[in-house]
Amino acid sequence: MAEVAIRSSCSHCLFSSSSPKDRPFCSSALKFQSLKSSKNSQFHGRKIVAQPLQRGVHIRALPIQMTITFRRSFKWWEKGLQPNMKEITSAQDLVDSILNAGDQLVILHFYSPGCGGCKALHPKLCQFAERNPDVLFLQVNHEEHKSMCYSLNVHVLPFFRFYRGAHGRLCSFSCTNATIKKFKDALAKHSTERCSLGPTRGLEESELLALAANKDLSFSYAPKAPEPQPPTFPAVQADTVKSAPANPRSPFKDKTPTEVGRPPALWIPT
């Protein structure tokens, strides 16, 4: 920080319109201002005082190096973001983020920078994310990923989809500030703790195939082969089983088993 004396114009100042011979030096004309300077500057941490200009004396210009920085202005969809809010960059990033979430509830939020409803709803979504740190909020910018949104059948904004573990997609809807109760009810219903017994499903099979079929996206997906099922046989009821008809040419059709040739029971005398 350096203090620089700057002479202002007044009736007695050196820079007034009167002749320099007839005006005295005005000490009140010196005003000090604080200037930020670079560390490489020659006057860093020192005082620079401008002396009154006298006849035959000239002020030598000093080299001054200054750096001016401007603070980055955040856009409305970048303000108030929480650690559990993530911006999606590609279709592969979307698929991996949902799969890696496991049993964690995932809320997929589609928005657009030019959407007034999305802008009005953004502060409330940041509050929901702060109150529910176990919920993952994934944000998809419609302007940057129009082709991907088209493949996912997203045609209205703001739009939401809920995913969780082995259940896959739980619900999907659109809401604004006027219908925020719809979002609150879905969050309260699906944010309860639970454990999935199967692997994480992620996006639906139809959604994955639609993303893979989109040539504008660098995403590939191979459909899973169906698992072989064990053969099943129809159940046979007892009343439907019928005995085969007797052969009319058989010589034993009217005879008893003893007559046919079965040996009779042996008789043992006592």
Give structural notes.
The chain is α/β, with parallel strands linked by helices and 270 residues long. Among the domains are: 2-48, no CATH class; 76-213, Glutaredoxin (3-Layer(aba) Sandwich). Helices cover 21% and strands 16% of the residues. The chain contains six helices and eight strands, in the order E-E-E-E-H-E-H-E-H-E-E-H-H-H. The protein has a five-stranded mixed β-sheet with strand order 4-6-5-7-8, sandwiched between helices. It has a three-stranded mixed β-sheet with strand order 2-1-3, with no helix packed on it. It is elongated.
Proportion in β-strands? 15-25%
Terminal Cα span: 135 Å
Strand-and-helix sequence, N→C?
A: EEEEHEHEHEEHHH
Query: What is the name of the CATH architecture of the domain at 76-213?
Result: 3-Layer(aba) Sandwich
- Helix percent band: 10-25%
Name the poorly predicted regions: 1-18, 20-25, 27-37
So what's the overall shape? elongated
Q: Largest sheet, order of strands side by side?
A: 4-6-5-7-8
Q: How many distinct helices? A: 6
Biggest β-sheet description: 5 strands, mixed
Radius of gyration: 44 Å
For the record, the CATH class of the domain at 76-213 is: Alpha Beta
Mean pLDDT: 77
Find the CATH superfamily of the domain at 76-213: Glutaredoxin
CATH T-level fold name of the domain at 76-213 = Glutaredoxin
